[in-house]
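Quick one, probably user error.
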């Protein structure tokens, strides 16, 4: 009888430890999934920032070209007046 009690006791301990292990694995898996989701959102945000920077750079380049063109016209008009 004593051996049976020890075996049953150890089987209960085993089941408890297996359950704890499964819970720990679920927690780690959930954490990994959440961090992966955060990284995906970061990638989307970085992409949006890069797109905005590209558009701003294009706008700045166009403004610089327009300013340079206007300066040339100003100089030509000034030359006519002088």
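Nope, works fine. Designed sequence:
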């Amino acid at each position: 009888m004593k051996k049976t009690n020890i075996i049953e006791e150890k089987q209960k301990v085993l089941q408890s430890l297996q359950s704890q292990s499964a819970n720990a694995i679920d927690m780690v898996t959930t954490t990994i999934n959440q961090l992966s989701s955060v990284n995906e959102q970061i990638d989307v945000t970085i992409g949006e920032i890069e797109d905005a920077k590209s558009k701003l750079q294009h706008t700045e380049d166009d403004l610089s070209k327009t300013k340079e063109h206007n300066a040339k016209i100003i100089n030509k008009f000034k030359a006519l007046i002088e």
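The mean pLDDT is 95.
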